[in-house]
């Protein structure tokens, strides 16, 4: 059983990366386009929320396809840490009470991708095989 689990590890890492990126991109799409759920405020590219929306959508897409995974994941991990400490933590210490569970979780999952890479099903993997 250990052999099967070990053999599938890079593929399951890819699935985790793809699902995480898809979920993350929805936050950017909501900020920029008001889709799939309308945003409560008008989109302004030159605001913190606007910059975050662009990074969430564009960075999320790069993570989704597994291109430049490590540096993009580092950037997004930092973005989510900043979001947590600027927006959520001042409201309450506990993530459940301050609504920051997703920001904290995204931050640590992206930090994991910095160290793990993209996995087998990724553009990064294809690029490394050709090199």
Q: Descriptors for this entry?
A:
mainly alpha, 131 residues, 75% helix, single chain
What is the topology?
Blueprint lengths: L1 H32 L14 H18 L3 H20 L6 H4 L2 H16 L6 H8 L1
Keywords: Cell membrane, Membrane, Transmembrane, Transmembrane helix
GO cellular component, one term: plasma membrane
Organism: Pseudomaricurvus hydrocarbonicus
What do you see in this structure?
This protein is mainly alpha-helical. It has one domain (2-130). It is built from 6 helices and no strands. The protein has helices spanning 2-33, 48-65, 69-88, 95-98, 101-116, 123-130. Helix 1 (2-33) runs antiparallel to helix 2 (48-65). The longest helix has 32 residues, at 2-33.
Count the beta strands. 0
Ends distance: 33 Å
Largest sheet features? none
Low-pLDDT residue spans: none
Strand content is under 5%
Q: Structural class, from secondary structure content?
A: mainly alpha
Helix content percent band: over 70%
Oligomer: single chain
Count of spatially separate domains: 1
Look at the structure and give the mean pLDDT: 95
Sum up the overall morphology in one term: globular
State Rg. Answer: 16 Å
Can you write the helix and strand succession as a string?
Answer: HHHHHH
Number of helices: 6
Transmembrane segments: 12-33, 45-65, 72-90, 102-123
Subcellular location: Cell membrane
Keywords: Cell membrane, Membrane, Transmembrane, Transmembrane helix
Membrane topology: Multi-pass membrane protein
């Amino acid at each position: 059983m250990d052999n099967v689990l070990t053999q599938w590890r890079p593929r399951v890492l890819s699935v985790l990366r793809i699902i995480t990126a898809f979920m993350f991109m929805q936050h950017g799409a909501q900020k920029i386009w008001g889709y799939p759920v309308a945003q409560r405020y008008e989109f302004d590219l030159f605001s913190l929320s606007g910059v975050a929306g662009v990074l969430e959508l564009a960075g999320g897409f790069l993570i989704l396809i597994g291109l430049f995974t490590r540096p993009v994941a580092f950037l997004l991990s930092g973005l989510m840490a900043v979001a947590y400490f600027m927006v959520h933590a001042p409201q309450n210490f506990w993530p459940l009470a301050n609504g920051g569970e997703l920001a904290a979780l995204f931050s640590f999952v992206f930090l994991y991708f910095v160290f793990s890479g993209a996995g087998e099903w990724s553009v990064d993997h294809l690029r490394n095989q050709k090199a």
